[in-house]
Protein 1
Amino acid sequence: MKGPALHALGFLSAWGAGVGVLPADARLAAAGRPVLSLGRPERDGERFRRTTREGLLALAAVESALEDGGAHRLAIAGDRTALVYVTAAAYAPSNQRFIEGRGGSIRFAETAPAVVPAEVAIELHLSGPYAIFLGGPPATLRGIWHAAGLIADGECDRALVLGVEIFEECEGLYARSGRLCRRPLVEAAACLWLEAGQGTLSLESGRDGAGETGTDLRRRLGETFCCEPLAALDSWRRMDRAGTLNLTGRWRGETARLVWTDPMPRPLLAATRREEP
Amino acid sequence: MAATPLTAEPVAIVGAGVVTPIGGDLDAFWAALDAGIDGLSPIERFPVDDLRVGRGGEIKKLPLDSDLVGTPCRASRLLVAAAQDLRARVAIDATPARVAVVVGTAVGGVEELEHALHDDRGARRAAAALYDSPAHALARHLGARGPVVTVSTGCASGATALGLGADLLHDDAADLVVAGGYDVLCRFVMRGFDALRALTRDEVRPFDRRRSGLLLGEAAALVALRRLPDASQERLGTLLGYGSASDASHISAPDPEGRGLERAVRAALRQAGVAPDAIDFVSAHGTATPLNDPIECAVLARVLGERRRAVPVNSIKANLGHTMGAAAVLEAIMCLLASRHGLIPPTLNLDEPDPACDLDFVRGAARPARPRVSLSTSLGFGGCNGALVLEGAV
């Protein structure tokens, strides 16, 4: 299908903002810590006093994308902006808290994965098309694909693909489920802003596991589940490239591969080059 | 997804399979709807003594050999039970790599998290607590090796799953898509809705002036989707369009004016290439909560315009309870079965329609009618709204 243009991207992780701050080796940099937290963003206002950490991080990621695009929040308000949320497990802390009876029963609504993008939609007045994909990196690639389709079909003018993963509160569960592997679990929140573009986009999925990319990035980043492809995008654009981008993601035996030609139109690429130190 | 125009190619719904509180397969489900059976009962599978309300649409016995699933996860078992019913009706005969699975859920495998935190601290249940686990169990059962997708737009999840399943066919990402929804009744969700005071101690009474809330139910519902040219004439119907929109107003309550739902409905009609005056029947979300029903009716009245009192509307949530991720799929299947059988199931317990809900409700008994084009509406936590436009194989 017609490929979208990468208009802006905000990527936050426990290492800092952007992939430029990643260590050479996440495992060594973690120094034995199995989980690296992004903490709880501070925000003023009564509305945010009880907002979940994952909701605040989602909002911070979108604001990071706005900053990256040099745009005011009004630029994305309204029903012509689609919101696509992806996560593998950001709902787990709220679920655990509710099951353990902490935080009061009234917090049940917060256990729904849909509530994280809802916090963003409410704050930024995003009332366009909507989808939520659950899973690892293939879910993110499918989210990008879906968002691109909404733009190509004229259902929206722009789309935000928002990914959030947090782990700190459920460290014990991850330890038991065997999810604590050689790489540390690194919390991340990222937002990709897409607009209509001139390239092409294709998505394949299968179970062969061949052609996996991003090993070096993964070694530097750690395990971020669904946020990994968004980190790869940030890395790619910082390498001052034009042309074709290949993104691969694996999860539960499924491999998804996104091939995206010309994601950075020349004016955007030129702007990015000017801003790079 | 291919660069589909605003009006998308219709997708064939080749067949369906279900497991519900009112019937363990598609035939029993329809027979119970037609007869106006109420499947709500005291919950027996887990303790509810400490809750205000302990009733719901519980499936007392799964029509399933547990060895077929290989997991104690009830959500996975519900999905596999529905898949068995589907496979009894439809051959899943595409190349495995071209068979996709797309399911919607509101609470996923959260019951496994309850077990992992309370009574079984083994690794397997903790790993199964991720919401996408049941979809992968279903894919393994089907031998599907194409995309496995889990979506979670609250109680609109089933509608989202059908819409995205159709997209996979439009995009040539699969030749056959098993799409649907599921959710289980467990203490987690019962405690939550009980705490929200959303559950009624009375009967579930959609659109009735005495309505006082919903009851929850559990179910799984699946359909097999194919591109129209690949499908035989012996199909259940056609998915013409899907639309979604965010309310952007509240995390758990619908927008007071239903603006998001209206945008979703109009988007679905646009994708279907169908004008509002072509709608023959509406399967409403109809939860029987004081808030939902008048908002939804106001939206339907705006969409239907002068035909608001001429288009039959029902809700089947008084039969089943609110089955969350399965609800929209069961309601879509019901629309198509209504076309097939020439009967629209009644809305149970709707004795005194709320004057604020001024539509043509089917109540009392099934109404003889053979709707060609149906609209199905869904709303969920997070301000998620979904709508489906379906065509029966009449």
Note: Chain A has one domain: 2-275.
Protein 2
Amino acid sequence: MKILVCITHVPDTTSKIQFTENNTQFDKTGVQFIIGPYDDYALARAVELRDQTSGTLTVLNVGEAETEPTLRKALAIGADEAVRVNAFPSDSLFVANQIAHYAKEGNYDLILMGRESIDFNGGMVHGMVAEMLGIPSISPVMKLEIEGEVVKMAREIEGGKEHLEARLPLVAGCQEPIAEWKIPNMRGIMSARTKPLNVVEPVSDEVATNTVSYELPPAKGAVKLIDKDNVEELVKLLQNEAKVL
Amino acid sequence: MSILVYIEHAEGAIKKTSLEAVSYAKELAGQEGKDVTAVALGNIEESALSEAGSAGATKVLHVNDEKLNAGVIQAHADAVAQAFEKVGAQTLILAKSSLGDAVAARLSVKLKAGLVSNVVALPETNGGYKVKRSIYTGKAFAFSEITTDKKILAVKKNAVALKTDGSAAAVEALEVNLPESDFAAKITATDKAAGEISLPEADIIVSGGRGLKGAENWGLIEDLAKEMGAATGCSKPVSDSGWRPHHEHVGQTGVKVAPSLYVAVGISGAIQHLAGVNASKYIVVINKDPEAPFFKAADYGIVGDAFEILPKLTEAVKALK
Ligand SMILES: Cc1cc2nc3c(=O)[nH]c(=O)nc-3n(C[C@H](O)[C@H](O)[C@H](O)COP(=O)(O)OP(=O)(O)OC[C@H]3O[C@@H](n4cnc5c(N)ncnc54)[C@H](O)[C@@H]3O)c2cc1C
Ligand SMILES: Nc1ncnc2c1ncn2[C@@H]1O[C@H](COP(=O)(O)O)[C@@H](O)[C@H]1O
């Protein structure tokens, strides 16, 4: 089985978000970049499925040269080869076009992604890619098993889950507990250095949106502390001041 | 001309988030001199659908087909695309949800419509079409311009206030053509806790963390939630330990919530947890550690032992009635 995992290169979840140049550029100073946490679940499950089916596993990122350490990390976790589509990921449609093109050329059976990227949180790229390829896309997937021709999945819905079955090829946007994050071991890190990381040029430059500027939310005022022996006071404040009870 | 709104329903009623999307569309339609048409899929009473009128829809197109009851994504996308063409709409509005997101993404490709998700305000339409959206899991906002003629906005909860005026929308049957391939992914079962308030839609949430010590103490959280008419949530380690089901876990890697009131009990306030709650209007924190980071994000706080405070607080809320 041929598996493609699409990963993002995003600020670590503890990063302080700031902008420069009059709020038009993301400020990378001091920011550590990681594989998107949901993409990390997708990758972990893909490694397990590759091992079970003795298939191949490719990781792909649409990004500029700075994302290569993140792709190397995915190789260290267990991918067989990496691909970087050499372009700034300007919007979801643009990214989806690149992924759909690559996936079609390579005839992938299973395309795993994260449920959403943690920078722009669109949760859209998997659905777009699947529509471009004319195949199903399921997200957010918390369980994915392959039984012969059939893929059995559980998908999270508001307040519960939905169980689904479909045939390959398909796209899935993953989240926990689909698999446990894998931490690269020494052997993985060593072998990642010699695994192929291919750079390809984008196939289309179509975009549908342009991000023009950014803004930070207003700072929060100080907390009002209430004595633990006077919880009635809290209830009064919630009722009369916040008007939420 | 109409703005089209894709509305979802559950247990025989339009979802509140979808009604908010109708309100959003109504305000936008006002700016653009248009009206609002909604589209609903699957079995539901006409009288329940006509309530979309109260939030601002003139008409509801209804595909009353049981095949569309479950969240069959491709079929929903095709049906909404056909409604879009029929109405001659240029703009589609929908509420962000697990189904809405999936449908919106496919429609964006199908209709060649620029899509912006996590929209938090009405677009600025004087010269261009600039939409404000939440990014970095609520830590910032971006202003994105849509450059295509057709547009799709997936609206976050509380982007506009839900306004209702009691009027009823006309409900009209809609016929659609759905190829068999739309049903390639088969839904075999649905597990849903009936009657439970779902987290993304909840107006009040009482959430517990590792400070609660174990699943056996969750009665304290549930009692307070019941008195407040709230849904219950938790931190990630709580669901990882199996004290609570996974779908209750709030935060960066869990559910993002936007209630009027979020009560956090025995949760330290790690940045990944805060990422899921920063759209809340008011936050109350109960923690025995005065240095817990959550107090910095809170509006009201009590420093003390949850096991002492929760029963007293539940009593005090009960006394309101
Ligand atoms: C990539 C990544 C993603 C993550 N995503 C999420 C996420 O989505 N959601 C999430 O929640 N976490 C997430 N985490 C984990 C997060 O970093 C924290 O570890 C977690 O939120 C801590 O949970 P907690 O506050 O319940 O537990 P703790 O940090 O152990 O805090 C327990 C708190 O309870 C208080 N306490 C103890 N006893 C009492 C008592 N008797 N009365 C009152 N207070 C008491 C303590 O003072 C303490 O503040 C993520 C981590 C990573 C690395
Ligand atoms: N630039 C990118 N390169 C590769 N994959 C991506 C990229 N952007 C998004 N994806 C994939 O699409 C998923 C959903 O992203 P999004 O729609 O941006 O929330 C992510 O979790 C990734 O798996």
Note: Chain A touches chain B through 79 residues (CB under 8 Å).
